[in-house]
Amino acid sequence: MTLTIAIVGAGIGGLAAAAALSGAGHRVVVFDRFDAPAPVGSGLVIQPVGQAVLDGLSVGDTARRRGAKVHRMLGRDADSGRRVLDVSYDAPGVPRYGLAMHRAALFDVLHDAATAAGAEIRPGHRVTAVEAGAVRFAAGPEGPGGQDGPFDLVVDASGAGSVLSPMRARALSYGALWATVDWPDTTTLPYNELRQVYRRADRMLGVLPVGHLPGGEARKCAIFWSLPAGAQDDWRAAGLQAWRAEASALWPEYAPFAAQITDPAQMTMARYSHGTLRRPWSDGGRLVHIGDAAHRASPQLGQGANMALLDAWALARALERAQGDVALAARWYAQARRWHVRGYQGMSRLFTSQYQSDSRVLPLLRDRVLFPLSQVSPLPGVLTRLVCGDLLPPLGSLSN
């Protein structure tokens, strides 16, 4: 059964849904508020569960050529140099890795997949409401006004700023500044590891290899600097020289990366929140929320983009099994994703305060108790599966 489907938002989840649903034979239109769809943000890691979705969309190999394979996450205490985080993807007999990419590279891969599958992408359409399957648009500079539809199904993939989602998320006290820079020739850091350094939990800085930008050959990386969510203005006021000096004192190897930041505008502030829709659908299943419009969490486990990919894939599989019954498919999608989402959100919440907070006690617990325990069998294997994204079944009953 061929359905008419509107997708609101041309981000990771929206484009993945467009590729999957168009590939299944449905007529798909993607509405995006920007004049030209574009990615927002810097680096991310596609975990093995997310890579499986890319493979299902037949773009996994393309993504791997553009990204960087990350085999280990290593974090050290700034003062002592002790390891306080050490997770390897390569569990015995199960060689896996995280695929670190710039958002622009992943965007290009998914955009090409969606258009090749037949999805129509309409930029310059800011969606303001959905009623009975009809999509309404802002008028004036932000859109053409009027409405389109009704559609058999509307997928809200418009992210944390969704005006369609009823979710009320709780803002987290810490965020991070991100930037993309060149991989320095002088660095001794390995290009297949995510490296981080912590001072207690109020400072976290890191370097993530991300492969290549679209159309470029130079090796790139994402750098980040944790700080309170409302402290960006204070950071700017202190000046880049003071920031580079502090960062280099905490982690000397960070200096050639930080030296490439010559304008505060190169650093983009990411703010995080926690929240979950108890029921990620409404209007009898005709409006379904995926990705950050349905659930949000801190980035500690590196699952954000993967959750959006898994949501898109689960929705497509649910529609296929329900043979076009959108009400049934919406319920199956929600059931399939419920425990994976809630489980990872809960674990992310536990980790967040250990790495991004003003607590003096939790970092001690992390460094002196939890990290030593994490190196004792069988916990290394459990942590590997946690990071890979399949400690809990990612698609629930839709896995088979």
TrEMBL record:
UniProt keyword annotations, A-Z: Monooxygenase, Oxidoreductase
Keyword Oxidoreductase (UniProt): yes
Residue intervals of the FAD-binding domain: 4-320
GO molecular function: FAD binding; monooxygenase activity
Gene3D superfamilies named among the record's database cross-references: FAD/NAD(P)-binding domain (3.50.50.60)
Entry-linked Pfam families: FAD_binding_3
Keyword field contains Oxidoreductase: yes
InterPro entries: FAD-bd, FAD-dep_Monooxygenase_BioMet, FAD/NAD-bd_sf
PANTHER family: MONOOXYGENASE, PUTATIVE (AFU_ORTHOLOGUE AFUA_6G14510)-RELATED
Protein name per Swiss-Prot or TrEMBL: NAD(P)/FAD-dependent oxidoreductase
